[in-house]
Amino acid sequence: MIKKGTAFAGGVERRDVHEEETVKTGASGRKALVVVDMLNDFVRPGAPLEVPETRAILPALRRRIAKAHREGELVVYVCDSHRENDPEFARMGWPPHAVEGTPGAGVVASLAPEPGDVVVEKRTYSGFHGTTLHFILRRNGIKRLTLAGCVTNICILYTAADAAMRGYDATVDERFVAGLAPDAHAFALDQMEGVLGVRVVRRPVRSAPRH
Ligand SMILES: [Zn+2]
After folding, report:
1. Which of 26, 44, 124, 142 has fewest C-beta within 10 Å?
2. What is the CATH number of domain 29-201?
3. How far is the CA of 191 from the centre of ligand 1 (A)?
4. Ranges of each domain in the chain
5. Exposed/middle/buried for residue 159 (C-beta within 10 Å: 0-12, 13-18, 19+)
6. Other C-beta atoms lying within 10 Å of the C-beta of residue 206
7. Alpha-carbon span 109 to 207, nearest angstrom
8. Dist. CA 121 → ligand 1 center (Å)
9. Span from the CA of 107 to the centroid of ligand 1 (angstroms)
10. 123 C-alpha to center of ligand 1: Å?
């Protein structure tokens, strides 16, 4: 029997997922701050996937999280959580990192989630792929997201892409995202702004290198 919402065309089953996959209009107006991969294995000096720039954004991101709490934004931590032999390691060429249940997979202490915050574990670059993120955001009536954390051209970019496909209004403020390399960071911001419709807030041009 063919179920409602299911169509057959040339032997291929196509489910009509368009309606359930996008954010409903009439969302509550509540916003969410989505903090991506600010984990020990990315932030600590000498960590397996160390992104030194994450430590530069920590103070500003800490303040941004406090502001979110004050203003009633939902704070969602989206965190890599890999199996020991996760396909991502071999296929993408990354060293093992953020293996579930290890300290490296934990959010850095200075940004530790508070009661009422939500932690969503992911296995891929996207905070939406195979996770409950979309469900949680919709349940809270959220249409507007601010993405923060690392890495700008990987998990921020692919999470932004999936957010855009699902109808969210996303903002990325350069003060709260960390890249691995300046070129890739800049490319990702341009891509998000120019192609995905993300509102990108640029950091003022620095007069001197910070290191
Ligand atoms: Zn990973």
Report:
1. 26
2. 3.40.50.850
3. 21
4. 29-201
5. buried
6. 7
7. 31
8. 11
9. 14
10. 7
